[in-house]
Amino acid sequence: MKTLFFGSSSYCLPLAVSLHKDTDLIGVVTSPDSTFGRNKAILPSPIKSYAKSNQISYFTPSNSEELSRLIPDFKKLEPHIGVVADYGLLIPQGVFNLPVFKTINVHFGKLPQYRGASPLQWSIANGEKIIPVTFMLMDEGLDTGEIITEINYETKGDETTGTLYSLLFEKAADSLKKVIEDFTKGKSKPHKQNTKNVRVTQRLTRSDGYIPWEIFTNTINNNDNSTSPIINSLSPIARSAFSFSPFRSFACSETCRRALSLYNLYRALSPWPGLWTEVNINNSINTNKPIKKRLKILEIHLEPLTFNLVPDVVQLEGKKPVSWEQFKEAYLAFNKSL
């Protein structure tokens, strides 16, 4: 079985390894070399590095137009099936329909509820306990293709997007050989997605990580103060985290639900864009006009019995990370809300 793999990140490397081990991986399509670090070192993607070290053909188009121009090269390889995961570019129809059995897209999230650019982050933010590894055929729509199979992963409730990505890609890699064999031999029949409860998740930006100081402090202090008006002004993923209702099926106070929601949002936004708020810092020049600075919430946890949300490590803009207790002592002794 000749396979062609589209992927770029270190997360999806287990899929390339699985295809190389269990199929004839004839080529990979990945992102171009990029600059990293202060020294602007030019480095290849992890997928390109793997291909070079294993004498596998690789292609690094910088846009969809360049990808289309590679169709003659792909035809010479005569792929039986393509596999896409964490690639980065919009793949033209002429490319994903080229292999004999078309192209499989690996997607983390229930469809059609979590289509788009950030399905895993939205699933975590909404408190979903089961995250499917979905294998679907690519079509011209955004995550609208027919579903080949779904393999459910039951979360523990404390994983971040970063840790879940690693776990789900390992699970996808372990399942890939059987998924391809069953599909190409006709044992698994793709089925259309339903058209109800469709949600298209957007690519996250830094501003999606913002949480107002009032919501943050009310939550960690278990205050019953209403935050509904403020919640309505949050980013879409933050509003969804606070309005989703998986916790309403068991006895849990409003402060408990708010703590669970904020914790899920923190998990969803870690490692990027991260959860952050803004604090007023004393201005030594003008004491009547405090300086507003960003405060990153680097680590936070839920107490298992009380469901109290406890910050562990924070980082003030321009400073090194410190414990929450150190931060309160150094910067916020004057703030009665803490």
Automatic annotation (TrEMBL):
Keywords: Protein biosynthesis, Transferase. GO terms for molecular function: methionyl-tRNA formyltransferase activity. Its EC number is 2.1.2.9. Residues 21-175 form the Formyl transferase N-terminal domain. It comes from the Bacteria. CDD domains: FMT_core_Met-tRNA-FMT_N, Met_tRNA_FMT_C. One of its GO terms (cellular component) is cytosol. It is an enzyme of class 2 (transferase). PANTHER family: METHIONYL-TRNA FORMYLTRANSFERASE (PTHR11138), METHIONYL-TRNA FORMYLTRANSFERASE, MITOCHONDRIAL (PTHR11138:SF5). Belongs to the Fmt family. This is methionyl-tRNA formyltransferase.
